[in-house]
Amino acid sequence: MKVSGLVEGTGRNDGKAPADDEFYRPTLDAVWNAFGDDRVIFGSNWPVSARFASYETVFRIVDRYSRARGADAARKYFSTNARRGYGLPLA
């Protein structure tokens, strides 16, 4: 499951989607509960997401969330799972 489109779902296309991590927690919890640490990957929706929030805001939200799940979960989310899913060598 590629996690992207978080800020777009807010409908705030004025660049002011909520930047508070907690706003997105229910959605992120649902994704992680359904797919688990081994089946989620980072994916930005930039440049479309820029209408709703900056790339930095989007990245910060998912970075904090994944790191709160532990270093192993964050590493899988940002690297290992995508490499495995796309058939790339694991680093």
What are the defining features of this structure?
single chain, 3 helices, mainly alpha, globular, 2 strands, two-stranded parallel ribbon, 91 residues
Compact overview of the structure:
The protein has 91 residues and is mainly alpha-helical.
Would you kindly provide a written description of the structure presented here, covering whatever features stand out?
The protein is mainly α. It has a domain at 1-49. Helix content is 48%, strand content 4%. The protein has three helices and two strands. Strands 1-2 form a two-stranded parallel sheet. Strand 1 (2-3), helix 1 (21-35) and strand 2 form a beta-alpha-beta unit. The longest helix is centred in the first third of the chain and has 15 residues, at 21-35. The mean pLDDT is 94.
Q: Would you list the SSEs in sequence order as H and E? A: EHEHH
Describe the strand arrangement of the main beta sheet, using strand numbers: 1-2
Strand composition percent: under 5%
N/C terminus separation: 21 Å
Number of strands: 2
Helix content: 40-55%
What integer is the average pLDDT? 94
Q: Briefly note the structural class of the backbone.
A: mainly alpha
Major sheet details: 2 strands, parallel
| Overall geometric form | globular
Unreliable runs: none
Number of helical regions: 3
Radius of gyration: 13 Å
